[in-house]
Fold each of these.
Amino acid sequence: MNAAQHHHDSIIIDGLNASWFLSDSVIERIHRGGTTAVNATIAAWHDPAATLDMIGRMYHQIDRHSEIAQLVRSVDDIHAAKTAGKTGFILRFQDTTPLADKLHLLRVYRALGVRIIQLTYNFENLVGFGCQAPEDRGLTEFGRQVVSEMNRLGILIDLSHCGARTTLEAIDHSEKPVAITHSNAAAQFPHPRNKSDEAIKACAARGGVIGAVSFPAMLTPNLPATLDDYVDTINYLVEVAGIDHVGIGPDLMEEMPAEVVAIVLKGLPVDAVNFMKSIPPVQGFASAADMPNITERLLARGYSAADTQKIMGGNWLRLYAEVWESPSH
């Protein structure tokens, strides 16, 4: 099988990208990698005013690149992007801080195109607890309201950075499948952000999807990490969750401004911050432009054409359809 042609013909979905999308070259590299749709982080620690500003700036950026980019509000938009040879941008938040304490803002953000929201970043917020919080006491009462309202509106819940208890409680409380867009298995490689097999299985049992993250510090102690290390991670997730519940969620952070990186790493130990800054990217997957290499390696490692398509985008597409297209009122 011609891997390059298979990649070109498939719907490819980047389950999580945290790059600086206001950079023209980032938009161009994502498109060059053949990505049909990307789960694009546009806000995290931002308050409502700053979040609205970022949404507006993202609209402007997509309009400026309308020959290769479009906004995604529905699964039909992803199919349309594929037909047109464009990349669809799915707006998402890495935290619920953009809500402040106002549940009704979820409806506003959905009307503006936001389709995926992670409940917590690394530490505690009004909704629950992140994976770096000293203690995880689970979903708060406001957190349970947020989960229910996201279900009602058809916004996909992401639990990647959530702590262990918050993760399991959110899966249990949600009436719809949830996502773990960018985490790996703690049993394969211990890291605070990697998930227990219990959480991975619980997510899959409810119809959710986990996206394998390519950040080297979450893959292997043997650096530099390689593309085979990344596929090993995908293999393990498939063994635990099943072939219908695994996607890719590389968590690339291309061209992130230094001041933004400082905020991302805020609160982490100094030695951990220095280590993370010094790690070389995955060999063979240093950029979104290298996305075809994953398809090639999955096929080379024995995945069928159909299963490769599931991992590279089909499973995300199914999950998006189930959550976005049937809001409950």
Amino acid sequence: MQTAREAFSKLKSLAGEWRGSSPYGKDIRLTYEVTGKDSAVIERYRHYWKGELMEDEMVTMYHLSGDDLVLTHYCTLGNQPRMRANLSIDEDVIFEFIGASNLPHPNALRMTGVAFHFIDNDNITQTWSWDGEKKHILPENRSDDYDDIPDSGEGIDTFTLARVKVPMAAE
């Protein structure tokens, strides 16, 4: 079983740019940045949907809290799910829902989990899960980006991502 520090080190190793796709046709753009004197990882998420880059980015902050590895996801839905890593799996880092702020309704659509599968240093799979009803999305948070999400119930979206290699500068 891995420790929270070991799992956090894996997340810090993601620093840089990543590109990938989802089965729903999303062209995914992720960046990871280690900040706060190595105490937090910022994930910035954007994607292309139907040829257009989504207007707003989503940000997820990962950090240690005592013996736990936790995250807060700042969603374009306007809510902020919180999750804690389940560290019983040695190779993957899997986060499970522990609560959310700013939900407009108890059954509102929200992210409920994320799993990182580390294939190698330059390739990962990220799977997000959600639950809730789209009918509770506030009008100011509605967009075509949610067309691929069922109106009600649980769902998942898996992204296969590769690290963007920065070419070395010519001397």
Amino acid sequence: MVCPSLDIAKGLHLIAACAMKNAMLRIYSPTDNRTFADGEALPADAVWIDLYNPTPAEEALLEAALGIDIPTVDDMAEIETSSRLYLDNDAIVLTVTLATGILAETPETCQVSFVLGRHHLVTVRYHAVRSFENFAAQATRSPELCAGPAAALMALMDTIVDRLADGFEHVGREVDAISRAAFRRADPGARGRQVRRSNLALQSLLTRLGAAQDSLSKARESAVSLSRALSFLLFAAPKDASLAPHIKTQLRDLASLTDQANFTGNNLTFLLDATLGLISIEQNVVLKIFSVAAVVFMPPTLVAGIYGMNFAFMPELQWHLGYPLALLIMLASAVLPYLIFRWRGWM
């Protein structure tokens, strides 16, 4: 998307998208509302060009018009710093990793390239990023956000960082909810009574913890990538652009987000260990019940086994009260171990 300069008198016209195989090249033009065709010259007031899943023809068009190499999807997948942050014919190329889908519980990471030239800002992406759509809407309402390519880049970065902060806040709220579910188990209907969590409920907490950790790791990766890109931009940007104060502010914001990520990560680690401990306790309770049941029924089994023997001389078999006495002995032998266990605090 290309944003207009401030002295446009005819207003903003959003150029139609080239919807061919999901490719999209969008610009703002002060003259008319039309499709940006292959081989056509860029509008003189073009400031920001957004390439979403571009076609080779669109890339060639911009490379010929701007005199720079547009990063391809393979170039953007490189992980070494020298391939992601560099200068190209006085243009600053920044490739960053952005986290998407955190608020929608479908976290992913994607690569986005920013090419900052003297007269144009070009962004290249192969995934839908909500921050870009949000900034496009803001630029439509406030054209001053795109007074120039550097101003457009800073405003777009602000939108990206704000969206990333929303993602961190979402993960933080989810971690708090997991903590309440794991530890705050008081029964409102019974004073001081704790509601036990079943293994199934605890396993559900583990699943939520894994999802939160996945979102947090992708958000942290995005924050680190943006910090590296802005640090390079602070070094490479022209001094007359007066970007240093704005870049330093964004770097401080990203540093605070990184600290928040470390804090949330420590909470996730604690909750993971605690949940695994609770699962172990619940399993031990089940095993203890089986162990106690085996011990409780062992004496009655012994008594029944003795009186089930076929001996010729067994006086109790001739008693009228022999059978009730045997039942009473079995009951006593079962209740007595139970009472001893309760008295010793073993159960």
